[in-house]
Amino acid sequence: MGTHGHDPSLQHHFQNAQQQVDAGRMGIWLFLATEVLFFGGLFIAYAILKTGHGATFEFGHNQLSVPLGALNTVVLITSSLTMALAVLRAKEGNAKSSGRYLVWTLLFAFVFLGVKTVEYTAKYDTCLLPGDMYGLPEIDSAGNMVLNDQGKPVYGAHCTKAMEGFPGQPWVFFSLYFTMTGIHALHIIIGIGLLFWIWLRTRRGEFKPNYYAPVENVGLYWHLVDLVWIFLFPLLYRVG
Amino acid sequence: MSSQSASASDHHHSHLQEYLKTYVKLMILTAITVSASSFVGGTSGLIVTILISCLKGGLVLAVFMHLKDEDKVYTLIFFASLLFLGLFFIGTQGEWVSRGYVNPEADTYELRKEKIRKELKQQSSLEQNFNEYLDGLSEQAVPERVPTTAVAHL
């Protein structure tokens, strides 16, 4: 593919378009490798805590809604398909179709966050919360938990679910649940920003068959977010 | 030029088909994951779901993320990160699992389970004693409640 220094999409520090594409692709894959290590650390924490708190985790798994988790899995995999098609159409030079697939991907991203909001609200309403927030315990003026005569914290009046007396330390499970799904949701939110930016550039007609690397690289990021959820879902929602 | 665009469109068509096929595979595997726990539970269920997830992840990486068509250096970068993750896992999980062998007094998962089992046993034996005590009480109470003496008096 012949390119000239005049091509506005070719940065001056690259010799040609292919070198620019390769450098960008190498960069995004290195970034994805750091993302794997980042989420991987949390999966290691999961493995260690699950080994030490088997009964607690079994209880925790049973508190999560499998239908909602499965729905989000379907939504995210579908968004991965529309993203892959957006990249394919961009490569083909069909900006209109590519833009439409990007809008679909954005739509699925919002659906995912909506379902996540429903799940978080349900957890908040039943006081199944991380760490010291579990059961929304009463706090005295010094900021310490109020303890009853058995030395147990006094949970909020409406927190009947948390009061049932579950094995071990259920707040450990919910700390991990909110950390893992929360950081994943943050990646979705960042992804929405990136998708919107790419959609605007597509609408401006900036991409053509010999320059669509930004679409492809945002796509790679989006697929990785999907990939993380593929592991998060069965580990948090299903396994007893 | 025309032949070039025709081959490009064929190429595009095959990609589209491949993406759709992969999507269907991912959906089927998701359905298996969701239904799997009803017939396999415990550790074997955990292993099965992780294996299915690895398969799904592999499909996403190979097809949607184009690793199978790209230069192998990107596959190498990605799997290098998994290699280091594996070392991290072996180190931490190995420590947890092997504690009891190095120092029998150490806080191990097995020791914790044993402790809980003992507590539960103690609790259930207490409960049993209490139930026996209650049964004894009611047995003693029977003659008082049944008015046999009253019958005798008649």
What's this, in brief?
The complex is a heterodimer of chains A (240) and B (154). With 240 residues, chain A is mostly helical. Helix content of chain A is 70%, strand content 0%.
Protein described:
The complex is a heterodimer of chains A (240) and B (154). In chain A, 70% of the residues lie in helices and 0% in strands. Chain A has helices at residues 17-52, 54-63, 66-92, 95-125, 160-163, 170-203, 213-238. In chain A, helix 2 (54-63) packs across helix 6, helix 4 (95-125) packs antiparallel against helix 6 and helix 6 runs antiparallel to helix 7 (213-238). The longest helix of chain A is centred in the N-terminal third of the chain and has 36 residues, at 17-52. The N and C termini of chain A lie far apart (55 Å). In chain A, 38% of the residues are buried. The model of chain A is unreliable at 1-5 (pLDDT under 50). Chain B is mainly alpha-helical and 154 residues long. Chain B is elongated. Chain B starts with a helix and ends with a helix. The chains are: A mainly alpha (240), B mainly alpha (154). Chains A and B meet through helix 1, helix 3 and helix 7 of A and helix 1, helix 2, helix 3 and helix 4 of B.
Stretches of chain B where pLDDT is under 50 for at least 5 consecutive residues are 1-6, 141-154
Shape of chain B: elongated
Tell me the fraction of residues in β-strands of chain A, as a range. under 5%
What is the typical, i.e. mean, pLDDT of chain B?
78
Q: What summary fits the major beta sheet of chain B?
A: none
Report the C-alpha radius of gyration of chain A, rounded: 23 Å
> How many β-strand stretches of chain B?
0
Described by strand count, sense and barrel closure, the largest sheet of chain A is: none
Number of DSSP helical runs of chain A? 7
As residue ranges, the low-confidence spans of chain A are 1-5
Distance between the termini of chain B: 122 Å
User: Which chain pair shows the most residues in contact?
Assistant: A-B, 46 and 50 residues
